[in-house]
Amino acid sequence: MSLPNWRIGRALGIPIHVHASWFAVFFFVTWSVATGYLPETLPGLSAPRYWGMGGITALLLFLSVLLHELGHSYVALRYQIPISRITLFIFGGMAHMGKEPPSPRAEFLIAIAGPLVSLILGAGCLGGAMAVESLFAGSGIQGLVVLGSLLGMVNVQLGLFNLIPGFPLDGGRVLRAGLWAWNKDFNRATSQAALVGIGFGVALGLIGAVLMVGAWSGALGDSLATNGGWLIFLGAFIFSAALKSRRQAALQTSLASVTVRQVMVHRVVTLLPDMSVQDAVDQYFVTHGFGGFPVCEEGQVLGVVTVRDVQALPTALWPWRRVREVMRPASPAFCIPPDWSVMQAMERMVQSGWDRLLVMENEEIVGLVTRSAVAHFLQLHRASNVRRER
Ligand SMILES: [Zn+2]
Q: pTM of this prediction?
């Protein structure tokens, strides 16, 4: 999704963005309604009327998808889950939630809220269209009835499609909530629900391929080729999103079961704050080859100095500046205990912006954990897993 997106407003305090790919949907809906659906169901109108009504349908569809996402968001906000934005893009909408739901119950309610909004909207539109038709039959508002029932059907489809139990679709989240409640393991539940998602993505792709081949060979109508292409596209999207979630769940599982003690460097070299930058470079950075060093004095951790801090200083000043002046002062967030999981350490690194953390036990430095050490550990870990599977 490297195409641009634009912020168009706010709802429930959440910024609403439209991704460039949404315009493909807008055009496609307008075009297919104006040239296919309307001329068939409502013959005898002028082309500009058809295109105008097509455009209105596309806008209302946009609003329907937005309301679906706001349904999820409303419940998520009630659980204090921050939502950075809602993006509308080619496959619908997405509410970007700041963290995972706190419980299976929260997950279930957040997931079900979107399809519920769509189904209620759909039923409302269909009911409204039927009521208008029976009350004002033949009074020239047939257009309203046609649009109402079209929108109703689309919303019902939106609700039902999203209930398919393959993660990351809403139904997959409902499934994950159930599995999570059942086996008490969030990552395992994600992994299992994502596996269904992968299967569903493959199935959609296969159905799409059958439709395309059928249309090309003449066994099926030509119009089904477009539907087939769309299904392949959608299947690929669901497949890759599910695969990504499954990998992430596996990664989180391994990160949660490994402690900081297992990945930390035991031999920690520290610098004195009043040493010159030149000496630090000559005697430490060059000889040890580390990317950064904690700065300590009399058992107190004062800060960290990294290659980047040194590089920011002109070389000519190296003999004249002390380490104390270029280091980044340490905050309490910089020190962690050795029995933390690597997952917790990684979260701390992300939150605090440090790429290395000092491991302290009984007020003593016992090790150092860096982002790259974690990455290396995981690579080895994965390699040994692969070997075990074979
Ligand atoms: Zn949804």
A: 0.69
